[in-house]
Amino acid sequence: MKLIDNIADMKSYSDRIRAEGNKISFVPTMGALHTGHLKLIKNANNISDICVVSIFINPAQFGPTEDFNKYPRDLDKDKGLLKEIGVDAIFFPKLEDMYGDHFQTYVEVEELQKPLCGKLRPGHFKGVATIVLKLFNIVKPHYAVFGEKDYQQLQVIKKMVCDLNLDVDIISHPIVREQSGLAMSSRNDYLDSGQREKACSISQALFNIKQQFDTGITDRNNLLDSAYSILNKANIDEIEYLEIVDGKNLIEKKLAGPGDLVAIAARLDGTRLIDNIRL
Predict the structure, then answer these.
(1) What is the pLDDT of residues 87-107, one digit of tens each?
(2) Helix (H), strand (E) at residue 112
(3) Which residues are catalytically annotated?
(4) pTM attached to this predicted model
(5) 2-173 CATH, one of 3.30.450.20, 3.10.20.90, 3.40.50.300, 3.40.50.620
(6) d(CA 44, CA 13)
(7) Architecture of domain 186-278
């Protein structure tokens, strides 16, 4: 497994792989890898000749009051996990290399960044789109794999790739869940056993909406009311949003239909968790 910590070497490596006629798949991460990441990365490994994973905690996607400084970091552990599953190269650039002196160029996907998480995390998707575009330009992948748990991020990236005519195929991977139903996330590490039990109500609320929809209920308020009952019974500290939106443009729907998305963001003792389900 090749370890690459600077942009020039990463570009040179990718150029050589491409010149040899090999296909590159790419998974961008912020580290703190868990089983969900590893399943996604294994998928990427299976669709290409060479699999590259980046580890970079991107400050541009964290707000001033968010958890950048306490975001879990264990590069040695991550390297071991990636070596174990057969990743070909890890790219872990330095902050000063990715955001040099007087950095001032950013990418915004104007409409898709506004709803859901965008309402509450201004600038977040600008930071996401910018770092992903930079990584695409450096790694030069044929395929990039993103998880569906961060569904809005996935749609933002797809739109950026389409609008800017980028030569990379975006592949989505289904949400990976713990046995309890809780969506796997690096931020789950913040939760104690009691909080994890409460957090399970988030996925339970989504599954409940899907079950009701499958019986023919489509009215937004009717679908959401029972979900709120589940969340309130579990004493979830704060529900930032629980919405039914169009699966492509993320516009809120009054009547749910096939392919629509139910998305939620909630906080447990300061830990922000997101989840979603397609109808």
Answers:
(1) 999 999 999 999 999 999 999
(2) none
(3) 37
(4) 0.96
(5) 3.40.50.620
(6) 18
(7) 2-Layer Sandwich (3.30)
